[in-house]
Model the fold of this input.
Amino acid sequence: MLSPRFQVLTFAVLLNAVFAVSAGASDTQGGRGDLPHVVLILADDLGYGDLSCLNPDSKIQTPSLDRLAQEGMSFTDAHTPSSVCTPTRYGLLTGRYAWRTRLQSGVLYGFDRPLIEPNRMTLASLLKSHGYATAAVGKWHLGLGWQSAQGTPVTDKDYTTDDPGVDFTRPITEGPLTVGFDYFFGIAASLDMAPYCYIENDRVTAIPEEDTQGQDFPMNWRAGKKSPDFVHDQVLSVLTEKAVGWLSETHKQAPERPLFLYFPLTAPHTPVLPLPEFQGKSQAGSYGDFVVQVDHVVGRVLKAIDDLGIRENTLVIFTSDNGSTMTIRPFFQQYQHATNYHFRGQKSDIWEGGHRVPFLVRWPGRVERGTTCEAAICLTDLLGTFAQIVGDTLPETCGEDSFGFLPLLTGEARTVDRPPIVMHSINGKFAVRRGEWKFLDCRGSGGWSLAENRVPDAAPAGQLYNLRDDIGEQTNLFPARPEIVSELRAVLSTIRESGRSAP
Done:
């Protein structure tokens, strides 16, 4: 019954092989001169509707992102594998759904142990094997190998605000440097999660000794230890300087070497703290002003690329880790700004507003200017796509949910028969998307918008939407189309049980 629907996998295998061969064999030690620099910018909790290039009625002007769209390609059907940050970041870097790990719901916190398994391929390790210099600057949020005063790993429980007895004078044993990055500067988790300190490579830059109290919105951070060099509203600026500085210094040291910068921002996630020069620059309150600051950061990175003279050989990708969380906040409704555009729900939800995100790509000479792609993609697909770009083939033991979409970027295809995409909510609820059909294996949002205990008693056991006709997910066809429900439930079960969804 299912095999005809998975015939697309045969096509996908052939497609991947064609692009691997056409790209040619790569020198896995020194790299190739034709490999592009890659800059991947990941915003934190930025909604699809926040960008003025994607939402004509946006109350926020984003000129730098608009320029990126004008000079490249905008994807209108791009999805995160999860509607919250940690699992999305895992999927983006590894090409594998995070629910295949120990993390079945929720997110990690600042003291949690690493989620990325030892020896698992990541975007960084793949590109590093092809001669790239690699750096991660920003919010990590995938767990770190903190040590106790006795030199033992801190692994016994999940911590939110409590200090589990970390000895901050000891190096971090697992983190960005052990999954393929040559350099790291950033923070452990979200800007509202302790410990509040900078980490450079495998050590904190200053010991977090000050006790900071929890704050309400817009400060909105949890209580915990803070280092003297850490000021919440300065973090985004500090990270930007580090990112731009790494690009400049590394390129000048070895101009012939390709660069990979992973730049996961800390904004516009709470605490919402736009700097004074950005306050009042939008019509969407302090959150909108913070988005303007994010846009400015993107502009800084684009300018750095231009100043280095590498614009023509740099692939720039901008996206977000999930939808915005502002939708259900009462104070925000006064601005009448559709932060998640016309999609239902928000961050945490299994509805489109939770996981449909902006995705902009600029690659001069390869991606046609001012184009739009309506094909469905997932952030897990980046590993497979990067493999196609460097002319490599992913081993069977990695990228289990990554389907390369290089033909979409180059314009050689307007659509690809991608295997169904699985989405996951903060509460561990699943949805699967195949073509225009989306099946949600739950009665409510799976997140904060509509808790399961608020679902009407008469609601069906699941949800089915035809996104071609009902992008707002308002008409539940679950009772009317049981044959589609049965098919998609079987597809979801197969993907979950098989261990992979990609060829």
Remarks:
- Confidence is low (pLDDT under 50) at residues 1-31.
- The domain at 8-418 is CATH 3.40.720.10 (Alkaline Phosphatase, subunit A).
- Residues 285-307 form the longest helix (23 residues).
- The chain is about 25% helix and 15% strand.
